[in-house]
Amino acid sequence: MASDRWTTSSPGTTLTPSILPYGQSLLIAAESTLGISSAGSLADKRRDHILSRTAGIDAAITLGDVDFLVAPMGAAAKYPGKAGAPTLVAAGKLVSSNTGVLR
Fold it and tell me: Is 102 helix (H, G, I), strand (E, B) or coil?
């Protein structure tokens, strides 16, 4: 069972939610499951794949009649991973917030 106190190797140092970005509650919830091979976990994985790949990325490519999708990683980082889709990351910077032009 996870401890409800977050600590580091330095005495007297307590981690905060910003240091543990997904939060202690997620860790406790994960430890209370039956594991990644359980029926519920496998059903969740199948649902994630359908929503992110079949009804997500593949549908957007087909309906948009395009060869690839471009999205900011902050908004779309987890979906390609869930879908098992290849991802290419390219650095860019916003030139104008009014036009959304990237350079």
Answer: strand
CA angle 19, 24, 29 (to 5 degrees): 145
- Tell me the one-letter amino acid at 24: Q
Dump pLDDT digits (tens) for 79-92. Answer: 787 888 888 777 77
Q: State the CB neighbour count (10 A cutoff) for residue 5.
A: 8
pTM of structure: 0.55
Polymer length of the chain = 103
78, 82, 86, 91: CA torsion to nearest 10: 0
Q: How many helices (H) and strands (E) does the chain have?
A: 5, 2
User: Per-domain residue ranges for the chain?
Assistant: 1-32, 36-102
Q: pLDDT tens across 53-103, in order?
A: 999 889 999 999 999 888 776 666 677 878 888 887 777 776 666 665 555
Is the distance from CB of 8 to CB of 20 less than 8 angstroms? no
- Residue 72 CB partners (closer than 8 Å, separation 6+): none
